[in-house]
Amino acid sequence: MDTSELLRTPLNVFSLALILVLTFLAAYRIRKKWLRIPVRIACSIAAVLSGLLLAFILFARGKPNETVTEARNGPFKILVRSQEFHHSGSINVDICVTASSNLAFPKNEKLQCFLHGYDFSGLSVKWLAQQNIEIAFDCGRVTAFTNSTFVYPNGPVPVEFHATLRDGCANQVQRFHM
After folding, report:
1. What is the 3-state secondary structure (H, E, C) of 126-168?
2. pLDDT digits (tens, 9 = 90+) for 69-104
């Protein structure tokens, strides 16, 4: 997600609050007392809210708690990245494939990642064959999944990988008897 999209709305709110603060300062110049009081109250509330919003923008930045686990299979490896932002309790998971020589997580996630999701329990990823992968979990939320991805290890010729997804959530449905 692009940071500019994330900050666009708060910056608009902050600029609106700044306009209200300037209106508050202009309220001192209003001669009629009955008009001055509501404008001051509204502008004071806007100033406090804009300060809180600015504090949120400044302190909400930061790096997530991130772990990356890998499973190698010859010239390729599977990367499982887990991220938790600001100790939220929700853990985002990305499962991708890349060349074994790559040290970083793939930048082109749309081409190289099989799964995006969060809050998985019992997650396991294993190689079934040279280009086949099994992703299994007991329960969790899948936000994006594709059965195949491509890796361009050395030049324009891609290597295609296939994934099988096995979830156990249907087996864990509780049945209530009345």
Report:
1. EECCCCEEEEEECEEEEEEECCEEEECCCCCCCEEEEEEEEEC
2. 999 998 999 999 999 887 778 899 999 999 888 888
The verdict on 48 and 84 lying in the same domain is no
Render pLDDT for 139-173 as a digit per residue (tens, 0 to 9). Answer: 889 999 999 888 888 778 889 999 999 887 665 54
Using 50, 70 and 90 to split pLDDT, how confident is the model at 62? low
Query: Is 98 in contact with 79 (CB distance < 8 Å)?
Result: yes
70 and 55 in one domain? no
Rounded CA separation 140/117 (Å): 7
What does each C-alpha distance from 82 to 15, 62, 105, 116, 137 come to in angstroms?
Answer: 36, 16, 12, 10, 14
Token pair for 23? 């209106």
Q: Structure pTM?
A: 0.63
Contacts of residue 2, Cβ cutoff 8 Å, sequence gap at least 6: none
Same domain, 89 and 117: yes
Among the three residues 40, 59, 78, which one is the final residue of a domain in this structure?
59
Q: Is residue 112 part of a domain?
A: yes
Please tell me the predicted confidence (pLDDT) of residue 50.
Answer: 75
Pair 140, 172: CB distance under 8 Å: no
